[in-house]
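Subject: design request, 195 residues
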């Protein structure tokens, strides 16, 4: 039986059991082989050594700018001009990590004998389906002490909705199973279905 735990669950081929989350998604005769979801914790990537200092400089400057404008009796339009930049500063310093964790908690993955399925539930929900036999790529990235990622499409540095994929990994436009437990076993399941 499948569950929505973060670790992968192999569904016995003879069981025919599917979770309610995937039942309406499957084609007639399609078998669910695995379900899972991304790890929900803090995700620091190698590029963070560039992004974190930049975000701290941006956020720090925006705090300084706004405090100066608010305490110097500047005109209202000058004071309001800095507010959107301050909001962006708060997002890039801390909000992006919280946003990424929130998105990953609402993301579910599945492998069937025909497709790769990626579903984001809730506000801004989406459903993505890829033919398992025609995947543009199949790349496994594992870490020594944690979850792995299986990439199905190439990814550019700034890919994502509105270019935010670099700041918030869960917003990447490329299809992938991001930070799943036991990624090697899931990779083997997918390779086995590709023929």
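Subject: RE: design request

Done. Sequence follows.
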């Amino acid at each position: 039986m499948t569950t929505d735990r973060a670790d992968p669950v192999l569904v016995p081929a003879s069981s025919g059991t599917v979770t309610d989350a995937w039942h309406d998604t499957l084609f007639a005769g399609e078998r669910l082989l695995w379900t899972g979801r991304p790890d929900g914790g803090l995700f620091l990537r190698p590029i963070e050594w560039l992004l974190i200092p930049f975000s701290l400089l941006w956020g720090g400057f925006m705090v300084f700018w706004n405090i100066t404008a608010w305490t110097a009796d500047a005109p209202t339009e000058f004071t309001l001009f800095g507010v959107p930049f301050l909001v962006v500063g708060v997002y890039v310093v801390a909000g992006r990590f919280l946003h990424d964790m929130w998105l990953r908690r609402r993301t579910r993955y599945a492998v069937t004998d025909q497709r790769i399925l990626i579903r984001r539930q809730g506000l801004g929900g989406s459903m993505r389906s890829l033919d398992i036999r025609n995947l543009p790529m199949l790349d496994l990235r594992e870490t020594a002490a944690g979850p792995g990622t299986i990439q199905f499409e190439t990814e550019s540095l700034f890919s994502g909705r509105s270019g935010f994929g670099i700041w918030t990994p869960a917003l990447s436009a490329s299809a992938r199973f991001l930070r799943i437990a036991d990624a090697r076993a899931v990779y083997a399941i997918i390779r086995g279905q590709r023929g």
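The mean pLDDT is 82.
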